[in-house]
Design a protein that fits this description.
Length: about 230
Amino acid sequence: MSSPSSTGTADDFEIIHIPHTPEGIAHYLPLYRSFRLLSLHLAPEAFASKYATEAAFPDEIWQARLSNPSANTFLALRAPASGSAPEQPRVLSSSTMLGPLPYGPDVVSPLGNPWTALAVETEEVAGTRPLHFRLNAVFTLAGERKRGISRALILKAMGVAAQEANARGKGIVISVVVEEGNVPAKKLYEKCGYRTIEVVQKEGADEMPLEQRMCCLLVWEGEYVDGLSGQNLS
């Protein structure tokens, strides 16, 4: 499996929010699954999951991911060139916004699996605290970085989460976990208004390269009023 080459300009992509409908899932599942496996293959150090594990997933697991009402998945797509074959868009980047989670970022471990937290039954989500969402599995092809794609994908996901919080009359906090050594990613999130609140060491860190041993938990907090931080995210 190899990484596709980069073509096109920085504005020739669109961000798709995969619908939770059977039709939407059926349409986008092949693209999502293929890119997710490619991501795990190209950058195994960036994910808690493993390529071999997810490559063996049956269709039911992939469908359950995309149909989960507490998981909103986004793809950055580039349309195929005119006359090219096959006539399918190319996935450049993806992410999933999980939540609202039953606990705040101070309780959900940066090293834990946020998918498991979705299954916890608690009344905290309906309480007075801000709704907590976790931006998860953000990955952009190396050749497509520094083109504004990652930022557009992140802001789109944040906007969807913020709209849900706004509809409930709640505040919002969004968290994301980044390797401490991934300076470009940290800078990107900081430009989007995130700040680091915790740095933790990974399990088995002594056997990892120095830049992969620590993870940073970053959070964004705010209210949705025609966009986040004065930006139009709708």
